[in-house]
Design a protein that fits this description.
About 40% of the residues are buried. This protein is an alpha/beta fold. The structure holds ligand C2E and calcium ion (3 copies).
């Protein structure tokens, strides 16, 4: 009984969110937060990841883990993606130095929009060089849309756009596509990072995953770095090149990110 009542609440809640999300998208009410990726040696900001944010007028911040799947269900994810690409490129073109920007794309985007066209247009309009722009794609997305994804990613890579494999280690564990697709970066999921300061086996696993990436000539990034102890273990034992996580910065609203870049990259 309780179970059914809860499902009903969830159903109505989700229906309401879908209606409100549709309005928020058409009214331009989404925003972006940016989280820096730092070079592990210099501690300078190399690029920032764009993360979509939705502040609901009554419910407050709805997390992307809730609204991105809803957007996929109602067929509006690609509108979000296209907007994120344009907005992220625009913001990045105004940041100090040569800091790049990364955006997340969904499996559906490969069919629903001309990703290459959208990226080209954004780069042309903002004057951002392709080397400063990066697409993040999950294992699941590239496997689901294998043929079309490999074509689109190859086209983007040919232009010089970076291709990062996101959440590495959490999806399908077939490794064949790692060398078959034109990735430039491997982002190791934070589940490989969380225990490394306490568990020798966890550190050994992270080290070996990072070596795999380095052997394939990928830039290797650790996600979800939260403590100095985790960072120190990585510096001492792994070939990880870039780090991202709350230890350095939470995702920040766009008005604060330029200042953070200036501060961290000064001197
Ligand atoms: P993701 O692409 O793996 O993004 C990283 C997530 O990890 C972000 O959550 C970020 O806030 C969080 N994070 C960063 N550092 C730490 C840390 O040190 N500890 C912990 N516990 N978490 C950390 P966020 O912003 O809630 O986004 C969640 C997911 O939603 C993203 O995971 C991504 O899959 C999706 N997402 C966000 N924005 C977009 C978008 O514009 N398009 C698409 N397709 N997906 C998006
Ligand atoms: Ca990502
Ligand atoms: Ca990730
Ligand atoms: Ca994730």
């Amino acid at each position: 009984q309780i179970f059914h009542a809860q499902m009903d609440v969830d159903y109505h809640y989700r229906q309401r969110l879908k209606v409100d999300l549709r309005h928020a998208i058409s009214a331009g009410k989404l925003s972006l937060a940016f989280q820096p990726l730092l070079d592990i040696g210099t501690r300078k900001v190399v690029s920032c990841e764009a993360l979509a944010r939705w502040e609901h007028p009554e419910l407050g911040q709805v997390p992307p883990s809730t609204f991105i799947p809803l957007a996929e269900e109602i067929g509006l994810i690609s509108e979000i993606t296209a907007w994120v690409i344009g907005e992220a490129a625009l913001q990045c073109s105004q940041w100090p130095g040569q800091v790049g920007v990364a955006v997340n794309v969904s499996a559906r985007d490969f069919r629903a929009i001309d990703l290459q066209g959208v990226v080209d247009e954004a780069l042309l309009r903002t004057g951002l060089p392709p080397e400063r722009f990066e697409i993040e794609v999950t294992e699941t997305a590239v496997i689901e849309e294998r043929d079309i994804a490999s074509n689109v990613l190859a086209g983007l890579a040919r232009r010089g756009v970076g291709i990062a494999l996101d959440d590495f280690g959490t999806g399908y564990s077939s490794l064949s596509y790692l060398s078959a697709l034109p990735f430039s970066k491997l982002k190791i999921d934070r589940s490989f990072v969380s225990e490394i300061a306490e568990q020798p086996r966890a550190l050994s696993l992270l080290t070996n995953v990072a070596r795999l990436g380095r052997d394939l000539d990928l830039v290797v990034v650790a996600e979800g770095v939260e403590t100095e102890a985790q960072l120190n273990a990585m510096v001492a034992h792994t070939p990880i090149q870039q780090v991202q996580g709350y230890l350095f910065s939470r995702p920040l609203p766009q008005r604060d990110i330029a200042e953070l870049i200036s501060r961290l990259n000064a001197g």
